[in-house]
Amino acid sequence: KPSHRFDPDFTRLVVENMGPKTTERHRVVLGALITHIHDFAREVELSVDEWMEGVKFVNALGEIYTKSNKTRNETHRICDVLGLESLVDEIAHKIIAEGDIDPTSSSILGPFWSPNAPFRELGGSIIQDGVPPNGRVTKMHGVIRDIITGRPIPGAVFDIWQASANGKYDFQDPDNQTPNNLRGKFRADADGKYTLYCLHPTAYSLPTDGPSWKLLCMMDRHPMRPAHIHIMVTHPEFQGCTTQLYPSDDQWLSTDTVFAVKDDLVVDFKPLEGDDKAVLELEYNVNLAPKGYKGKI
After folding, report:
1. CB 182 within 8 Å of CB 162
2. Which residues are in the Intradiol ring-cleavage dioxygenases domain (predicted)?
3. What are the φ/ψ torsions at residue 57 (nearest 5 degrees)?
4. Are 164 and 135 in contact (CB under 8 A)?
5. Is the pLDDT of residue 47 over 80?
């Protein structure tokens, strides 16, 4: 009698059928993918009906993308819900410095970044359409520094975007927002400083329809993202940082539905007096590593 219920050579047969023109990286990635998928199917003894449900689920992801004029990337959202984007982001960007200052932690880009955000004057506002109901204007400022020298990085670009007080980004909300509302780029001054005005962020829910919502329901999970501000900080001589900042009093920090919260990204918004443009203040300094820097291996 065979010692295995399932053919022990089957997975090897599939992997080894890759031909000689397969690149080495494709062979590594696809070989591991096939092996893990086969191991998973055997471990749970996946039924034919369950497999077909998975096929229908994947098909539905593409159907949403097509029907929404390619503005709703449901497959991207599924990767977020499963923690895959946050994990890939950590693999790609995690650096532990050899000195006392680590680079600012990265976090997922998410689906709402835009390459078209305009440059705005230092000290300007990204609140293009006026303060929304229940919106709280925040003066945000800080210094962008080199982790090796501790010196400021003049000319670094601070790109910021956020949802409005209704939890929607500009292109989700054409009835209430014009393009590039709550988006902007700012160039740090000679001392590496940036200053701008934005809104205190608002928590919001992922869509409660479609495959991502079905998956969340299967796992008995909520769809909420904690309030956050997106930033992307770049300079030609430094490794860029794309991340999100979260108010420390947000109720969803420990159960963020896309698992993107990290300790150094949790911030305190403080009451601000003497500024007729804002009621809150957020100081946040950004630390960048020089290009090519690997840190501790």
Report:
1. yes
2. 109-289
3. -60, -45
4. yes
5. yes
Residue type, 255: T
Answer for the pair 281, 270: CB distance below 8 angstroms, yes or no. yes
Q: What is the pTM of this model?
A: 0.90
Distances (CA, A) of 239 to 72, 233, 255, 292: 29, 9, 29, 8
Contacts of 45 (CB under 8 A, 6+ apart): none
Specify whether the CB–CB gap between 95 and 293 falls below 8 A. yes
Contacts of 126 (CB under 8 A, 6+ apart): 120, 160, 161, 162, 181, 182, 183, 184, 196, 197, 198
Q: 19, exposed or middle or buried, with CB in 10 Å at 0-12, 13-18, 19+?
A: exposed
Q: What is the pLDDT of residues 4-27, one digit of tens each?
A: 789 999 999 999 999 999 999 999
pLDDT of residue 68: 77
The string of DSSP codes covering 50-82 is HHHHHHHHHHHHHHHHHHTTT---HHHHHHHHT
Looking at residue 209, its amino acid is: D
User: CA 110 to CA 226: how far, in whole Å?
Assistant: 14
Which strand (E) or helix (H) includes residue 279? none
Instruction: Supply the mean pLDDT for the chain.
Output: 95
How would you classify the pairing of strands 286-288 and 157-161? Answer: unpaired
Beta strands in the chain (DSSP E): 137-146, 157-161, 183-187, 193-199, 204-205, 224-225, 229-235, 238-247, 266-267, 270-271, 280-283, 286-288
